[in-house]
Amino acid sequence: QKEVEQNSxxxxxxxxxIASLNCTYSDRGxxxxxxxxxxxxxxxxxxxxxxxxxDKEDGRFTAQLNKASQYVSLLIRDSQxxxxxxxxxxxxxxxxKLSFGAGTTVTVRA
Amino acid sequence: DTGVSxxxxxxxxxxxxxxxxxxxxxxxxxxxxxxxxxxxxxPEFLTYFQNEAQLEKSRLLSDRFSAxxxxxxxxxxxxxxxEQGDSAMYLCxxxxxxxxxxxxxxGPGTRLTVL
Lengths: 110, 115
Hints:
The complex is a heterodimer of chains A (110) and B (115).
Chain A: E1 4-6, E2 11-14, E3 19-25, E4 32-38, E5 45-50, E6 54-58, E7 61-66, E8 71-76, E9 85-92, E10 98-100, E11 104-109
Parallel strand pairs in A: 2-11
Antiparallel strand pairs in A: 1-3, 3-8, 4-5, 4-9, 6-7, 7-8, 9-10, 9-11
Chain B: E1 5-7, E2 10-13, E3 19-24, E4 31-37, E5 44-50, E6 53-57, E7 65-68, E8 75-79, E9 88-95, E10 105-106, E11 110-114
Parallel strand pairs in B: 2-11
Antiparallel strand pairs in B: 1-3, 3-8, 4-5, 4-9, 5-6, 7-8, 9-10, 9-11
């Protein structure tokens, strides 16, 4: 079992719609959870982190965490063409190491 | 620019050659990480420094790889006797530390191509 798994994608959504990205993790002791955005050929950019069960909103992005189900999600509301990228879920399983999923590629259709 | 910087941005080398990459973290961050990313995959952890101490090395880091962080500032990652399988994006990240959040900020990466 992989440590972090994400929807295989790709995910195509029309402009203005909600994009929903899912991530599950294997280590029940994981403390904090991150979403990174990565444009093609670029490095990952941190967009959100969450560490408590429930929802956390930042602009058009909402992260959701359910530790009992070992599940993290990211919602992108009012999707824009500039949101087209690969979204990486990362889990902090100890004090230092981040374990990443393989990413979900999102394409927003104009 | 106060972000993480990496040099060079691109490196093309022949198999068997040695290469060295440099990372300058965000100035107030005491933690520095190296990751490797191949096409279609997420970054994979290689090694981690807290100040000048290298505290963890992944089993991915064979004995051909060595990393240093003298004086707890910039870090270098050296690959000796490069192999074609070493071709990847090498990412450096830094964080201010802390037990709970550990937000890591990535540099632009060094893309290595081994011919």
